[in-house]
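Lab manual, section 2.4: Encoding a predicted structure.

Procedure: take the sequence of the chain (124 residues), apply the prediction step described in section 2.3, and record the output as structure tokens. A sample record is shown.
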Amino acid sequence: MRNLIPFLIFFGLLLPASYSNATDVRDDRQAPPTPPVAQAPSYPKIVLYSTSWCRHCREAREYLAARNIPFVELDVEADEEALDTLITKYGTKRVPLVVIGDDDAVVRGFTPESLEKALQSRMP
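Recorded output:
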């Protein structure tokens, strides 16, 4: 046991110095400047009129979600007010219908190209 105490003291004094954390060591070097963070594009308000069973509605929903483009989805089967707006304001019962901004652009149906073109022309 007597031989163990000097051994423990020896390692007890050496280990903390050799395994010190970076926070324990004074470092006068400056951190490299952080690069500017690119801001996410700000999108106009986007409303997707859809139904739950429509294949093209699902494609439009997935397209917007995959690109982190914020949108509001209105299911015209579940929301009578949305259906009424779709019929009276936009003159159709067909979905999907994508409204960008304050009726700045209305995309009837869905293709990635048509939606992308409409979005690009309305970006600030």
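Check your result against the sample. The first strand starts at residue 46 and ends at 50.
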